[in-house]
């Protein structure tokens, strides 16, 4: 585990006065615009809304409360609940927060940046005590809101980039590189790749980049690839694997962006009587426990999901207990390859 100590600074949330000064109108006018009440010109309304968005200001929806007040909620914003990765992250978060007065509240983005921005806006409007949000890539407006929220923010799952405040995760580029090294060491040369949500899942994209980087250094290119914009499913894994091998029967290894489609591919190959891993090797990602009952154990890599959730919640709890405390807020965990029964070891 790699960590970098950072001394946290006391945060101050934005107020109506900040928006007033930025837009050049009174606080009362700002309030009217943000509550969509009163007689305000279109030009003034546009100026106020533009200033609020640029600052990352989110109006307080707690009736009668002061702008600086907080509730004992931690906003947890994730891409999916159907993906089996994130419930384990939530378990880790809850294990830590259950010993505090804080309660996690979950928002789901479906991997859509615009939806993430909307979910974040709504959740911040209730003045939570902290935010845990998946990923490092956000819209400019979402990043401004996170930067100006005045509360602890922890970005999780990924450490290949610069966080707004704190981050906990793994290096997905490193994960891709290490899997490529294991595959090449096992002697496989003709490699295909299958990935889901690649245009939107930045972490899968980074694994693919690290994977192809190592292959390229050894003079090997991905011979076939297929990207799927839908969810992770066994049926889709079967379908994609059949289509790829029909196109490229010379392939001797298939690398999947997650275990679910990898498991579908494994079941298809076994049904076809193909020798795994002798004729074709396979590997996925995430080490999903649900798949432990497969006829063969799929080679994979653990994404440290439970520990990510726990570490993120610990950062939030520690910062809220003492904003001036010195704590580790850049935490990179190290996943390990599980070779299973589908990747030869040499």
From TrEMBL:
InterPro entries linked:
HTH_LacI, Lambda_DNA-bd_dom_sf, Peripla_BP/Lac1_sug-bd_dom, Peripla_BP_I
- Which Gene Ontology molecular function entries are recorded, alphabetically? DNA-binding transcription factor activity; transcription cis-regulatory region binding
The answer to whether UniProt assigns keyword Transcription to this entry is yes
Q: Give the transmembrane region(s).
A: none
Q: Please report the stretch or stretches of sequence annotated as the HTH lacI-type domain.
A: 14-68
Superkingdom assignment: Bacteria
Alphabetically list the UniProt keywords. DNA-binding, Transcription, Transcription regulation
Q: Which PANTHER family match?
A: LACI-RELATED TRANSCRIPTIONAL REPRESSOR (PTHR30146), TRANSCRIPTIONAL REGULATOR (PTHR30146:SF33)
Q: What is this protein called?
A: HTH-type transcriptional regulator GntR
Organism expressing this protein natively: Ruegeria arenilitoris
């Amino acid at each position: 585990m790699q960590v970098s100590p950072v001394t946290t600074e006391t945060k101050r949330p934005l107020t109506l006065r900040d928006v007033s000064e930025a837009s050049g109108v009174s606080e009362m006018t700002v309030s009217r615009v943000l509550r969509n009440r009163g007689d305000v010109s279109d030009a003034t309304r546009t100026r106020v809304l533009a200033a609020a968005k640029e600052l990352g200001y989110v109006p307080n929806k707690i009736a009668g409360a002061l702008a600086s007040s907080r509730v004992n909620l931690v906003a947890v914003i994730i891409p999916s609940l159907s993906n089996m990765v994130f419930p384990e992250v939530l378990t880790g978060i809850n294990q830590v927060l259950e010993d505090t007065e804080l309660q996690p509240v979950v928002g789901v983005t479906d991997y859509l940046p615009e939806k993430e921005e909307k979910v974040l806006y709504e959740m911040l409007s209730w003045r939570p005590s902290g935010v845990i949000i998946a990923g490092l890539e956000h819209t400019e407006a979402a990043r401004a809101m996170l930067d100006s929220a005045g509360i602890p923010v922890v970005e999780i799952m990924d450490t290949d980039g610069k966080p707004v405040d704190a981050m906990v995760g793994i290096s997905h580029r490193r994960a891709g590189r290490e899997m490529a090294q294991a595959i090449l060491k096992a002697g496989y040369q003709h490699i295909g790749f299958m990935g889901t949500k690649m245009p939107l899942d930045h972490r899968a994209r980074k694994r693919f980049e690290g994977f192809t980087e190592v292959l390229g250094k050894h003079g090997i290119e991905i011979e076939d690839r297929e990207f799927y914009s839908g969810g992770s499913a066994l049926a889709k894994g079967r379908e994609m694997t059949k289509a790829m091998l029909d196109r490229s029967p010379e392939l001797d290894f298939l690398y999947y962006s997650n275990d679910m489609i990898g498991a579908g591919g494994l079941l298809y190959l076994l049904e076809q009587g193909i020798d795994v891993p002798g004729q074709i090797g396979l590997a996925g990602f995430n080490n999903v426990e649900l798949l432990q009952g497969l006829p063969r154990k799929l080679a994979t890599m653990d994404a440290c999901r439970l520990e990510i959730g726990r570490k993120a919640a610990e950062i939030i709890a520690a910062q809220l207990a003492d904003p001036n405390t010195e704590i580790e807020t850049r935490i990179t965990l190290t996943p390990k390859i599980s070779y299973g029964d589908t990747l030869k070891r040499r």
